Amino acid sequence: MTGEGLPWTERFKPASLMEIVGNYASAEQLLNWVKRSLEGGEGVKKGAMVYGPPGTGKTLSVELVAKELDLELIEMNASDFRTEELVEKVAGGAASQASLFGRRGKLIFMDEIDGISGREDRGGLSSIIATIRASKHPVVVGANDPWDPRFRGLREICEMIQFRRIRSQSIVVYLKKVAKKAGVTATDGALERIAEFSNGDLRAAINDFQMLATGRQTLNELEVRGLQFRVQERGSFDVMKELFSSKSALEAKLALEGTAMDPEMALQWINENIPNQYQSPKERAEAYDWLSRGDVFLGRVKRWQAWDLIGYALELAAGGAALAKSGEYRFVKYSFPKRISIMSQTKEERGAKREALDLIAKANHVSLKKAAFEYLPYIEIISGVGTRRSA
Amino acid sequence: MFKAVLADSRVWKSIIESVSTLVDEGVFVADPSGIKLRAMDPSRVAMVDLDLPKGAFESYECSGEVPIGVNFEDMKNVMRRAGSNEKLEIEKGEDEARLKMRLRGKTTRTFSLPLLDTGKEELSVPRIPFNVTVKAPASTITEAIKDAEVVSDFVRMSVEDGQMKITASGDRGEVEVVITKESGELLSVEVKEPSQALYSLNYLSKMMTAASLAEIVAIMFSKEMPLRLDFNLSSGGKIVYYLAPRMESE
Fold first, then answer.
1. CA atoms within 13 A on the CB side of B23
2. How far is A19 from A33, CA to CA, in rounded Å?
3. Domains with residue ranges and CATH for chain B
4. What ipTM score was computed for the predicted complex, to two decimals?
5. A134 has a chain B CB within 8 A of its CB
6. What pTM does this model have?
């Protein structure tokens, strides 16, 4: 057999779009978009964004679409987007030239754009947008969390193609095929457990299966017992949905684990979304009450660097927010914490205020806090300036 | 075991410069017949194909196939230190993870460079029927490209009626360079079919770095197809570049 040493995810990789499991409709949507994009019809979005959790077939679909349409695939990932020049050099160069090998065309795929981080990469993101606008070839970007506010400009010019977590029944069917090809006899129970624990990540399921089955001819339920539930990084909006729909404090806390959100950010998200989730004053009051208790612990964590208290902060805030509901959970539209954008909008104003407080505190030999609460309000009234917004 | 000696270190310097303008890292493959390198630029729009036969070296020893993965920027920095009248020895011992580069002049200086473990990608060169082949002094083409860069970032090459035209137009104006056989600047023209195509100046000017190594450049292309530039190095060996055409704007 060929490819003996390859990971099974490579060795038993689908060879055509027809074999895609779970997200076939999304792969088809991508295929249709690329076709329309090549024809250059009216109203076709300039780019496409394939998004969803890891292991759901995003990259594979792009590869297979390129194959199906006989396009040369130019793949790039986060390390190619570090700077504006790099994006221009690599993506920009690829976007305006025809294929070197005389193929019918090219498909440009920029994967893992979530990997673009921090301010220094802002240039990278805006030149990705510029590249998509100017490109003579279809450009697809791949992301795990498309709702990241940094991607807003990108979302506007992209056809959004969602890849969902794959249902475990579909994963089982696929694992059975893999088992057959690999010559492993596995019980249904074993495969079901692997599928269940993969949490909709087919790549993870195949990797787990290979790990467990290596060097064996058979695999049963007992032998997969050691498998751990896969905790994946999920998008912040999914986390909110999971958190508010929890039926126990533990479940709510688990929703926050395995996310890229730090605890402070998590509390911001809860804070922002309590009024979205709850309409009745009673529920809101209850949720905020628990959130505030969690925040007290978070304050202690930060003040005393007492990281062992972090569990209490999360459990009280998340559990309390989730259990405040008096009826059934219902899905609402969650929003991104406004605090961050407000803070950045008022950065200059706050800076100026801070400077003023420094002067006042120095001149009067008082603390900054005292200057803010006891001196500044009067000065504002006396001078007739300022907003009379308390600190 | 691999060891090669070049009588003039500046040749290697120019070779590295002509490769590094397009590629950051790559794998030289040395075998008993000589050194080869084939690499694509990161955007996969341009390719360089270098062939230095044994005969291009003052002395050459190589047993078996030796892959030598290097960072060209690092190697270029070493070669910047080379003076005129210096010999260059390149050496890689059995199982050694470093490449020794020795400059022999008034003093003997040995640089050791870490080798990259780059997975070898089997690249095949584009197989394209070229309808036009022209030969011209490399310096003439370099000048024409510099002229075009004044007004644009891409250029139209066309060959018709035994003359070559390099034209460019942009917001900054237009330029037309005509190279004819009569002026002696067009050394040969073979036309199966009159052709023209657009190419990015950014890549072309990088490729013309190799003009310092060869008197003559052969240019091959077809309508809206990739371009090929051949430089037969005066010191022996060959550098070939391929460049994908720029797409015409609608």
1. 26
2. 19
3. 1-112 (3.70.10.10), 130-241 (3.10.150.10)
4. 0.76
5. no
6. 0.68
